[in-house]
Amino acid sequence: MSQQDWSGVIHPDQTVLQPVIWTCQNPQCKPPGRHSFDFQSDYAVCPKCKAEGYPLVQKVTLIHFLLPQIDGPIAGQYSRYCLPCDPKRDNMATQTNGEAATDQPQLVNCPGCLNAMQKAMAELGGKILGPSGRPLDLQTQTPIALE
Predict the structure, then answer these.
(1) CA distance 29 to 58
(2) Of the residues 44, 51, 75, 140, which has the fewest C-beta atoms closer than 10 A?
(3) How is the chain split into domains, by residue range?
(4) CA–CA separation, 144 vs 135, rounded Å?
């Protein structure tokens, strides 16, 4: 199987180049306590065992965080949102580009979203603002009561 080149691809619904995350199912590669070894690369080749492509090496669906934002470019049913890794993007992730989006922070694996969320939380003293403009508890996804 030949190497697949995924580098430099920006889908029409993106404004920022997204990383490609792969997982290797080879038991020799997996870290203790995990069932696979994840890595970022432009190619479907495991850096540990050199396995190439399916069935051992598979592309991981990139899961973005839907950040509630009063003036966000993405319209949802009850609120507006943005993707922290690509704040100007005006649509959600789609299956055709190997991406998904969620409002559950514990499910997010997009490195850009995770970094942006950590930075925002540090700037806001550990708080992200919800649709009402009140701080949002990331565990329960509910606004924090103001004192």
Answers:
(1) 14
(2) 140
(3) 19-60, 62-143
(4) 5
| Tokens found for residue 101 | 């989006």
**From CA 146, how far away is CA 9, in angstroms rounded?**
44
Query: Can you give the C-alpha Rg of the chain in angstroms?
Result: 17
Output 3-10 pairs: Cβ under 8 A, ≥24 positions apart: 3/43, 3/44, 3/45, 3/52, 4/43, 4/44, 4/53, 5/42, 5/43, 6/42, 6/43, 6/44, 6/59, 7/42
- At CB < 8 A and 24+ separation, what contacts does 23-27 make? 23/57, 23/58, 23/60, 24/48, 24/49, 24/51, 24/56, 24/57, 25/55, 25/56, 25/57, 25/58, 26/51, 26/56
- ω before 55 within 30° of 0 (cis)? yes
- Cβ atoms of residues 36 and 22 within 8 Å: no
Phi, psi of 36 (to 5 degrees): -160, 170
Q: What are the φ/ψ torsions at residue 143 (nearest 5 degrees)? A: -65, 140
Structure-token match 């559950």, residue found: 104
Which tens digit of pLDDT belongs to each residue from 45-93? 999 999 999 999 999 888 899 888 888 898 888 889 989 888 888 877 6
